[in-house]
Design a protein that fits this description.
Length: about 575
């Protein structure tokens, strides 16, 4: 088993003054100037310089992360919004300009080529950043961040009144699991209607984001935003054409499996048509899984589960609980969704989510826990760039944890039948997720390769993508909600082209799962070893370390789909 990390170990500042206020550019600027004034005279001195750069970037990055966490935790607090936007407007553009100068300073060093081999990936990243940087894009990126924050503010304010109580849309999702179909439909229509109330505002926001992003790409001398983002996300190991092969493989091997599950669901429910409000209920008519009532129960039981995977994970998660690094409950004004952010100077993970007592919440916390363990596994890495794995592998860390914990759910489900249902839900979720990833990714490719499209054309493209990968759901009479269903996918607004990572990673996680079924301890050992590599290895090597193959074509998808189908057959009826 890999050597454990000490989450409480402190990394004292060597370069940045201990009392420096890193929310003020006036504090940061002289530190950047001091770095630029140094001329490392040997490879060892250059390494020390890079570590000092990492220290400054980590300290500033943590200041941003804290403000972002505070803002998303309460989007209707004007002071938190002001603090976050002040940083975005006044510090972030200057930091990007400073990073460009530091990158150029590094590339100009005569000792760069004499650095150890481990710096090769870092060197490639720096060259890519320098090539894409344009001063003219700095104010555009500020505006982009402001618009992204507006999306969170709009969606964070979405509530409905149901059964005499004001509820967030996340809280309303509980009612989509109720056996009574009329209850589900009523809840679904309330959610859909509330989203439609902001349809024009969100479409307008998206139009402005598309225009900004196209301008950013043009300024960088790149013909399309897709090509620009491919370089910016450092996707060195695959191409858009690989994504299209993934879409085709999912359509050929996962869509039929999902359609089979939908047909079985329709039959068990005894309905003529499978409607959008029929997708979350247990088709056997059993009551919804309600694994916990309070966030404290969610955290305590998750810790028990992590202990089954590896005692070290339980110790790390206990540390997160003790240090207040979890914000789990849904509440009015809180941004939707969930994420794991890293406090980059302390090298601590923070988990944010919107728990309301559903099985999905358990899965979300286990998922974000995988990210957190990844962040802690690389605490000793001195180079900030290598403390962050490529996102395609970062999601393996989280998705594999979902599956490694699937046999250990009894702290939430002591009843064997409920445990079987929860496990089946895990597998069905994977089967539903991959077509959804293909839908979102195919839609993004269309959006960014059809500049100047109208809203009507965009809606039609979305519906076409949705129907390609979800043919079994009947949306008759619900055309308007379907046309705007993509508004709920925050990645489209906040992280353009960030979604294929979930599909690539899910295939990697499934390979970890299959290995675990043959030799659980070996699979966990490999998983931990891969987490410890951070961003210090290319994607194929990270996947190989975890015991998986980096590929997402039919040759990879088909056998994994077959394994999922066989496992569901073995579990019996839902």
């Amino acid at each position: 088993m890999a050597v454990g990390v000490d989450p409480r170990k402190v990394f004292p500042r060597r370069f940045v003054p201990p009392d420096a206020d890193l929310g003020r550019w006036e504090t940061i600027e002289p530190l950047g100037a001091a770095l630029l004034a140094r001329t490392p005279e040997s490879p060892d001195a250059l390494e020390r310089w890079l570590e000092d750069v990492s220290e400054l970037l980590a300290a500033v990055g943590e200041e941003r992360a804290r403000r972002y966490i505070a803002m998303t935790s309460q989007t209707d607090d004007p002071e938190r919004e002001r603090a976050y936007l002040t940083f975005v407007r006044e510090v972030e553009p200057r930091m990007k300009a400073l990073l460009q100068r530091l990158d150029e300073h590094y590339l100009a060093s005569p000792h760069r080529r004499a650095l150890p081999e481990r710096y090769r990936l870092f060197d490639r990243s720096v060259q890519t950043r320098v090539a894409l940087f344009r001063e003219a894009n700095l104010p555009l990126e500020v505006r982009e961040a402001e618009l992204e924050q507006q999306y969170q503010k709009v969606t964070g304010a979405m509530t409905v009144t149901y059964r005499g109580a004001e509820r967030t849309l996340q809280q309303m999702a509980r009612f989509l699991e109720e056996p009574d179909r009329a209850t589900r439909e009523e809840a679904w229509r309330l959610i859909a209607g509330r989203r439609l109330a902001d349809r024009e505002a969100l479409d307008d926001l998206y139009d402005r984001l598309l225009a900004l992003r196209a301008e950013i790409a043009r300024n960088a001398g790149v013909p399309t935003y897709r090509e620009y983002v491919w370089r910016r996300r450092e996707r060195f190991d695959y191409t858009p054409e690989d994504c299209f092969r993934f879409h085709d493989a999912v359509e050929a091997h996962l869509v039929p499996l999902a359609a089979r599950l939908h047909r079985a669901r329709q039959g068990r429910l005894g309905v003529e048509r499978l409607r959008p409000w029929d997708l979350e209920v247990d088709p056997s008519g059993a009551p919804p899984l309600r694994p916990f009532e309070r966030p404290e129960e969610l955290a305590a039981r998750a810790e028990e589960i992590f202990a089954r995977v590896d005692p070290e994970f339980a110790a790390q998660f206990r540390f997160l609980r003790e240090e207040g690094l979890l914000d789990l409950a849904s509440r009015k004004g809180k941004a939707p969704g969930g994420y794991q952010a890293t406090l980059t100077e302390r090298r601590w993970p923070f988990i944010f989510m919107n728990a309301v007592g559903r099985d999905t919440d358990v899965l979300t916390l286990l998922h974000e826990g995988g990210h957190a363990f990844n962040a802690l596994a690389v605490r000793e890495e001195p180079l900030l760039a290598y403390r962050h794995p490529p996102m395609e592998f970062a999601e393996v860390a989280s998705m594999a944890m979902e599956l490694l914990t699937a046999d250990h759910l009894d702290p939430f489900y002591p009843d064997p039948e409920e445990r079987r249902r929860a496990y089946r839900h895990r597998l069905e979720r994977v089967i539903r997720l991959l077509p959804w990833v293909a839908t979102i990714d195919a839609f993004q490719h269309w959006v960014y390769t059809h500049p100047g499209h109208s809203r009507e054309e965009r809606r039609a493209a979305w519906v076409a993508a949705y129907r390609r990968f979800h043919p079994a759901v009947d949306w008759s009479g619900l055309e308007e909600p379907l046309e705007s269903l993509w508004h709920a996918q925050l990645h489209l607004f906040l992280a353009p082209f960030y979604y294929i990572e979930y599909g690539i990673a899910q295939l990697g996680a499934l390979q970890v799962w299959l290995r675990a079924r043959a030799d659980y301890r070996d699979a966990v050992r490999r998983y931990r070893a891969a987490l410890a590599l951070g961003g210090g290895a290319p994607l194929p090597a990270l996947f190989a370390a975890a015991g998986a193959r980096f590929a997402f074509d039919a040759g990879t998808v088909a056998p994994l789909a077959a394994s999922l189908g066989a496992e569901l057959d073995a579990l019996g009826e839902p």
